[in-house]
């Protein structure tokens, strides 16, 4: 029997989850369950890499960790068939990061564009953890020797770095790896990105050129996964549009970012291509399209919001999911880590 390939992905518990997180990542996680053996990780170690003012402090971290977990479950991720856990409960992530810190080069990390963006002008004052963030991400993936990683465009450079780290580890320790029974000298695989389909980049409802973001000061710019039906309806009705009727063909969306975004959201939520959506709504006014969009959003999102609410009221249950997941993740992680340490030459009890 062919071995089932392994998927790993992570979501940071750093604040309200919104439609962009759902359509850009979680929907895809749900689909991948059919064909892969999946690990979905709430990356709390990553969450603390920026200042405490950014991640919100201990109570927020715990709340957000449980909320991401609840969103996974409410969206249809099966924590029994697959593994859902939080990163800090599996010590191997931090341990493998240290080994990789000694494989990755400073030059590689200093080219990471996300570090430059997040550190901003005051780079001297960024945490060492923020600089090291991509190495921890490589450890996340390779600790399970995952072969496929669903990531958005913004994480592609980090995934490249994971491939470079895997390759350099394999090169640096080639003889030792072969000596430990890996005849091809390949201990870590080269993880492949699984780029999500089109129309998954959800933009702000107030500005179609900006990504929908938890840090936008206007709550009207995003649909939170916990928003109730009235709030969703209000936000969509207020969403920015332009005075033209909807085009009948996709080409007509090219210079109209707000129209493109709303049609993209409709397409993604209904699982149809944008051209199909325009066949139904092209030539019509925004107001009637928005009514249909409200209906669709509420139909798709309110069961998720309801389940998240139910889970928020039962944190013990959510914690138990994470504990079970961490235990099962740890079995795989320990195996990789043990072999990796042997390959490096660390002495241990046998
Ligand atoms: N850096 C990712 C993000 O912010 C989250 C992440 C952490 C991740 N570790 C990962 C994603 C491993 C994929 C694989 O989106």
Draw up the topology in text.
Blueprint: E1 6-11, H1 19-32, E2 37-42, H2 44-47, H3 52-55, H4 58-75, E3 83-86, H5 92-101, H6 106-109, H7 113-119, H8 128-142, E4 148-151, H9 156-172, H10 174-179, E5 192-195, H11 229-238, H12 257-270, H13 274-281, H14 286-312, H15 315-344
Parallel strand pairs: 1-2, 2-3, 4-5
The site of tryptophan has 12 residues, from strand 1, helix 8 and strand 4.
Give a quick rundown of the structure.
The chain has 15 helices and five strands.
Please tell me about this protein's structure.
With 350 residues, the chain is mainly α. The protein has two domains: 226 residues, HUPs (Rossmann fold); 92 residues, Tyrosyl-Transfer RNA Synthetase (Orthogonal Bundle), CATH 1.10.240. The chain contains 15 helices and five strands. A three-stranded parallel β-sheet has the order 1-2-3. It has a two-stranded parallel sheet with strand order 4-5. The radius of gyration is 22 Å and the shape is elongated. The chain starts with 5 loop residues before the first strand and ends in a 6-residue tail after the last helix. The model has no long low-confidence stretch (mean pLDDT 95). Tryptophan binds next to strand 1, helix 8 and strand 4.
